Amino acid sequence: xxxxxxxxxxxxxxxxxxxxxxxxxxxxxxxxxxxxxxxxxxxxxxxxxxxxxxxxxxxxxxxxxxxxxxxxxxxxxxxxxxxxxxxxxxxxxxxxxxxxxxxxxxxxxxxxxxxxxxxxxxxxxxxxxxxxxxxxxxxxxxxxxxxxxxxxxxxxxxxxxxxxxxxxxxxxxxxxxxxxxxxxxxxxxxxxxxxxxxxxxxxxxxxxxxxxxxxxxxxxxxxxxxxxxxxxxxxxxxxxxxxxxxxxxxxxxxxxxxxx
Amino acid sequence: xxxxxxxxxxxxxxxxxxxxxxxxxxxxxxxxxxxxxxxxxxxxxxxxxxxxxxxxxxxxxxxxxxxxxxxxxxxxxxxxxxxxxxxxxxxxxxxxxxxxxxxxxxxxxxxxxxxxxxxxxxxxxxxxxxxxxxxxxxxxxxxxxxxxxxxxxxxxxxxxxxxxxxxxxxxxxxxxxxxxxxxxxxxxxxxxxxxxxxxxxxxxxxxxxxxxxxxxxxxxxxxxxxxxxxxxxxxxxxxxxxxxxxxxxxxxxxxxxxxxxxxxxxxxxxxxxxxxxxxxxxxxxxxxxxxxxxxxxxxxxxxxxxxxxxxxxxxxxxxxxxxxxxxxxxxxxxxxxxxxxxxxxxxxxxxxxxxxxxxxxxxxxxxxxxxxxxxxxxxxxxxxxxxxxxxxxxxxxxxxxxxxxxxxxxxxxxxxxxx
Amino acid sequence: xxxxxxxxxxxxxxxxxxxxxxxxxxxxxxxxxxxxxxxxxxxxxxxxxxxxxxxxxxxxxxxxxxxxxxxxxxxxxxxxxxxxxxxxxxxxxxxxxxxxxxxxxxxxxxxxxxxxxxxxxxxxxxxxxxxxxxxxxxxxxxxxxxxxxxxxxxxxxxxxxxxxxxxxxxxxxxxxxxxxxxxxxxxxxxxxxxxxxxxxxxxxxxxxxxxxxxxxxxxxxxxxxxxxxxxxxxxxxxxxxxxxxxxxxxxxxxxxxxxxxxxxx
Lengths: 260, 419, 265
Known about the structure:
By secondary structure, chain A is mainly alpha-helical. Chain A has helices at residues 2-14, 16-35, 39-68, 70-77, 83-112, 121-148, 152-180, 187-195, 198-210, 212-215, 221-227, 230-257.
């Protein structure tokens, strides 16, 4: 698998889009620092962008890469290589290069603006973790969809729809239910519903760092327990890891059966 | 030889304080092994020197104008049975004592040191440990409580007392005390014209500082940290509050400062940092807020129940989850000239004042106040979308709540001299 | 060496292979023939594990290939359409395959044979169809593997390259390899093939030597014999069609079943 990963990575590195993506984060972060040198403010501004953009870009890259590397895949399939290695190698190639983009695009300006001497290093790491894990999850989901659908346009549309669902629609429905059923105890539902959306999970993770003062204002006992930082953090991280593992498992399942 | 040394010591003290009267020494091995016996022997104006040791006596009544001065941290232990020192004479001074173990009582408000109907007292540099109520003043006036450390182990609100408790007092100065682990750090009820300054009040169950029906008081330079709630000021007039720090008051309905039915107060140069609510206002009017910092709070300001004619100028609102929430649709308060880190407007004429108004009330804070669970959707795209659409065309939030001259930069009030 | 039993595969509702049996146990060149869509490529991809059959068994040297991958080290494959990662150069592609396969290779020899040295540093996307096919051939012949599978190897080749290819195949056959070829070029079959495997509607409808086919169909040329097969004449039926002639002497399928006389020869 490592050999395949190596070639997928070097293949990604040839694409100029990955550099444009990295450059985008570099410029964005630098611009935010230019507007306000306050690290925590930059982290908050970046959070909104990363939570929305990194899954979308990761999903699009993943779909495009898979669709464009069909020849490469066919070539590899005839070689004495394990099937799952090929697909995992390719998936990790995309996911890793997305993560590297994020790491460079955010990391360099933050280091330059004194991340290491500020008290914000944990908040930054949480933000970075959220961005990377979302990239992994959405690369995986998109890859899974691309494997499942023969039709390129259909695969592409499904991927975008999936992102739209998790990024916006889910929260809209969520809020609607909360407001409509206002009279019922909803704290368990609210926490449960957060677990089923990776973007929500990543957001809660960051909230626990940045907005703990407001979160602690909520009255429900379950909430208090969950948000009491340490358990909340661990559950959110664990759920995110499950989310990241799911598509990897799905890719293997589909890849073992797919015809080329 | 020993007698000579003692004599020399007495002479020394007398020569140093010729105006004061005699000295009575309390020590385990001396003629006065208990403080009670020393007070009995002393005359008005005498000084009672308490030597190191543990004095297991309670219910000591100080009914003479004496100074009780601990040397080398003598310990007065109530063994959990009774109140320890009760001062009923004027001009008493108590210092350098360690007062401990009063014991919890559900019947009476026992205290480590009580002043009842007395004036001109000084209570300083004492350490009070586990004293239920620490220093308890009733009908007292013109006294000073300073440099005391009062430590409790309160677990339950109804089974705990206040570290410094003032009831029907005037002209009291409470200065540079450290209070922790009680119900309220400092409690004032019917206390007028007093000063609470430079105290550190931490980890108390209810409030760091609590005002009830007290008028014309000042409190400044205090730090309130990790209490159930920082400071509650209720039903009081003309209170000035400045240069205090309110931080990390977390919990449901917890706040840095609660103002309930407060009029004509001034609140300036305070720091509100990491509180669930910075200031919670209920039915308050004619209060001036200026040069305060509100940073990283859940809600910087939460208003309820008809707050009128409050003026907020030159405050800094930095990285709060919500800057302001209000439950009424009409608002008669003024918010002009503050710095808001959330402000996304521009300043084309470069006069450091934003060219478009800032609306500190977000639709989502309105939603959260009705459906608290929705707080988990904070900072999601959908919430940003509804906030944005509300900003464009306000339907639910009061349109007149706005800063018409928002400042572009943090206002460095620390550099402005206090008049 | 290769045993295929009861192999079935359908794509959606389209049955491509139905209960196909085929056994190749001795070396030689086997031409897999059949009309478009008869399942030739699917059969080959099944052998390579690129297409997963619905049912049936494929064994290589007695062991099932289901979920296996190591056996592919013994197979050289030339795919039908030479599709490569477009932004790699020829050299990078060869290097990559060598890195992945990690076997002794003779790439330079084949490169020289087909004369593609000038393109070694060109991107694959910029190559002409014929040159791509030559690169394809290099990948197929650079390893000394006991099995070579080629899907339309002659596509796009110029006459010189075609002759070189034929020579190569001859040489490989001399080494005692199994060479499976699909093609539509009958001359090529006539010249190269030891045996013909004819597929129609997902089944093997003829298996045997060229002469046997001609005899059976009563046609002087392979082209005409195949044309007859395509028209549904002189086909074999039954499950034994995939077996070698030697294993089914009693069936006697050198004898024509139809009434077409062989006496013209």
